[in-house]
Amino acid sequence: MITEVTDIALFKQKALAWASNFDTLCYLDSNSFTDPYGKFDTLIAVGARAELMANSGNAFERLSAFKNNNPGWLTGFFGYDLKNEIEGLQSDNPDRLQFPDMYFFAPEILISIKGNTVEIIGENENQILEACTRFELVNGKQQPTINLQPRFSRPEYVETVDKIKQHIIRGDMYVTNFCQEFYADNTVIEPLSIFNNLNDLSPTPFSAFFKWKGNYIMCASPERFLAKRGSKLISQPIKGTARRDDDEVIDKTIIEELRNHPKELQENVMVVDLVRNDLTHSAKPGTVKTENLYNIQSFKQVHQMVSTVVCELRNEVTSVDAIKNTFPMGSMTGAPKISAMRLMEQYERSKRGVYSGAIGYFSPDGDFDFNVVIRTLLYNSTKKYLSLHVGSAITYHANAEQEYEECLLKAKAVLEVLGVAGKS
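Structure (tokenized):
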């Protein structure tokens, strides 16, 4: 059924709160950002009539079969450590969350919102609409301050970055993404309340709230990994970050500094080259092109440098293959890709898991859209373990102290929602 809703913001809140009572939920929100490739403002997939849980090995093959057996909408995530299946790598760092490398489900109910138009797909659609509309919102309890602990002290982080730069000097790689984890043990949270607060504080075009089997993903991502629109593939890597300022004049100056900063431009163009190369594995010859280079997008917390790379998909390449051919995304790996991933496994102290992976959907018309899982809290409610990863690009010109500050800047909204002013 399709209907018009007057107060769409309130309806979204109620629909998400209602949907969060189900065991399985994927909520994707563009937060009204203008996106030429966006198909809807909000997508809510509720309840699993079929599901796939897979770890690295034959996960993509299993996804292809699952997709063929469940035509229609699928929502789910790819974990970063699927790299091991694609490139013959391994993950030896501790995995304290115990999330699968891949999880997808075919929803029982699907609610999509575009403007003030709401479409509901599922049994008893009128009852679903009424349930969402009449749902009583309850204010979440005051969340106690959660003291996230770092896996790296600041001196340890600086020392590690200096070691990584030695690999760059030796020619082992020329750019990488080095990630660190902040975590809390024995922690009880209200995931939906935290996500709502995070989405209010840091609205981004690829926000997501994902729930399955007592596990939660609270994501405020600004970045698209890969989308398919007809025969066109679109990737929009982000590299280059700068803070916001309340003073409009200073804020504009910061944008100009970012637009002309040699290190940030170097990071961005390196990743664009990597994405272009990744897309050639799926593209019709001669169709890979950079549609937009060094575009500055401003979000509530930060300015980011975003480039858009596109191509025409070859007829014989499936959607699952197109994703596999570009995964993990270049903005979270480095270049050369395999060398960077192998080296980061040596220097990082936690398995990345869903962080650096992708959340999104496959739609019945053959299209798909997946984000990059960054600015994200991961929570295992059984283990009471809460995790936040942050990373930054390390190049020859990187300053370790500044990279640490960039990590804190990227984590700022999440830390604020948890009641933490900052880490040192």
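The chain has one domain: 2-417. The chain has a mean pLDDT of 94.
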